[in-house]
Amino acid sequence: MLEKLVTFGTVSNRNLLMGDPQAHTLKRKLLATERFENESAVKQYLKERCLVQIFQLADEKERSFFEHFTIAILKPEYND
User: Fold this and answer.
1) At 29, is the secondary structure helix, strand, or coil?
2) Measuring CA to CA, which residue among 7, 6, 39 is closest to residue 21?
């Protein structure tokens, strides 16, 4: 069961846990909330509390429609 959707969209940097926080939008947004003391706390939160699900859609137009529809309906907290 989905507790809360925090972000949804296309990613170019799939190394969310080990990647540079300035290069990954979700990490940067979580650090900016001041709920986390540092990058290590964000990594721990992502490891323990978050799930990543990947949908691969070959058609670029279909992918874009799906992404926008999902964001509009579910209103993820950390999407702009």
Assistant:
1) helix
2) 39
